[in-house]
Specification:
The chain has helices at about 1-15, 20-40, 60-70, 85-90, 105-110, 125-145, 170-190, 195-200, 205-210, 215-240, 250-275, 280-295, 310-315, 320-335, 340-365; strands at about 45-55, 75-80, 95-100, 115-120, 155-165. With about 375 residues, it is an alpha/beta fold. It has a 5-stranded mixed beta sheet, sandwiched between helices.
């Protein structure tokens, strides 16, 4: 029994001396509960909306001020014409437009009824429904406050219009997200074990003494996987079109170029993981556990980023999947061109260059 107790004590000592084991035991659960607790929410906060006010009277201003005062919405811009609504949505910053009818206040007084049209971006059906429900709740509260002082109750009627996805098909949201996750995780995982495999097989020394320059080794490692990942992307797009009836409103060529850029970014990130990992097991753990949760939770695939705390919103900016989802939804569902997604493309390109440069730097350190 004493031997067994001594053996158990020894195991405790080994665990407490191993910082990686302690991090997995205590650090990962804490990080996951905080991440899930703050990121997973069906509520909306500070969602950017636009206002199209044809009436511009005291009543509409009061309603607009009430909506702006809530924590749920932030008025991004004022639209002057209905023709501008499409371009507002194509830019991707505004999730809804509130369209007040002409003579809103007069209709409310004379006919005791006035109409507000709620136009939402339904590329994310859940968020679109939530926005519509929140606006209706604010308007109902406003009606209760106003109707206390009058004999004949005023009635504010809302008309909801979902753009880009009028049938609210969930596949329109899931196909771009799933495509992003698959390309990100598979590409990063494939290259993350490439250099660590060389170490474990003992062939790393051959690379170290080879006449190839560091950037040639990195590019050589990435290049074959580009074709394999492109095949993955083509298969996903074909399946989404012919099985799930996913529309592609924009340019197929632009979609292909953006997909290749994202694939290279994911492969470069995998190479970076490979250069800092000692074993294939460590590289696999980082590429799976370290990327899967952030990609799913902080990319805007399922949960709106605007509803998350500010620190998580800042962290989401360094995740390539966030920018690719914006790009792919813009091309496939909104039919936008490069003039609307050039900023996201530039960010994705910058991340790709950064990952490759850092991988080369780490490789040079190993050579020294």
């Amino acid at each position: 029994m004493k031997r067994f107790i001594g053996f158990v004590k020894k195991e405790f000592y080994h665990i407490f001396r191993d910082r990686r084991s302690l991090f997995i035991l205590f650090g990962m659960p804490i990080a996951q509960i905080l991440l899930f607790g703050f990121a997973i929410t069906n509520e909306i906060n500070n969602v950017d909306i636009a206002i199209l006010d044809h009436s511009k009277d005291a009543t509409t201003k009061e309603i607009i001020n009430k909506i702006a005062a809530s924590k749920y919405f932030s008025i991004k811009q004022m639209v002057t014409r209905e023709a501008d609504i499409a371009s507002v949505f194509q830019k991707g910053h505004v999730k809804a437009v509130l369209n007040f009818e002409k003579d809103f206040s007069k209709n409310l007084i004379k006919e005791h009824k006035a109409t507000i049209q709620i136009i939402t971006d339904a590329t994310d059906p859940n968020t679109a429904n939530t926005i519509s429900n929140y606006v209706n709740a604010i308007l109902q509260q406003y009606q209760k406050e106003v109707n206390k002082e009058i004999i004949i109750a005023y009635q504010i009627v809302t008309e909801t219009r979902m753009v880009y996805n009028p049938e609210l098909k969930s596949v329109y949201m899931f196909v771009p997200g799933v495509m992003t996750i698959i390309l990100m995780l598979v590409s990063a995982m494939m290259t993350s074990i490439s250099i660590t495999r060389e170490k474990e097989l003992g062939t790393m020394e051959i690379l170290l003494v080879s006449p190839l320059k560091p950037f040639q080794v990195i590019i050589g490692k990435v290049f074959p996987y580009i074709f394999l990942s492109v095949i993955n992307a083509v298969v996903i797009v074909v399946l989404s079109i012919f099985i799930f009836n996913m529309p592609i409103q924009g340019s197929l060529l632009l979609l292909a170029l953006e997909s290749v850029l994202f694939i290279i970014s994911a492969l470069a990130l995998g190479i970076l993981i490979s250069t800092i990992s000692a074993t294939q097991q460590t590289a696999m753990m980082i590429s799976l556990m370290g990327l899967m949760l952030p990609v799913i939770l902080l990319s805007g695939f399922i949960f709106p980023i605007s509803s998350m705390p500010i620190p998580l919103q800042v962290i989401s900016n360094i995740i390539p999947a966030k920018w690719f989802i914006i790009i792919i939804k813009g091309i496939m569902l909104k039919g936008v061109g490069l003039q609307y997604i050039w900023k996201e493309t530039l960010v994705l390109f910058g991340m790709t260059v950064f990952f490759i440069a850092l991988s080369i730097k780490k490789y040079k350190i190993r050579l020294e």
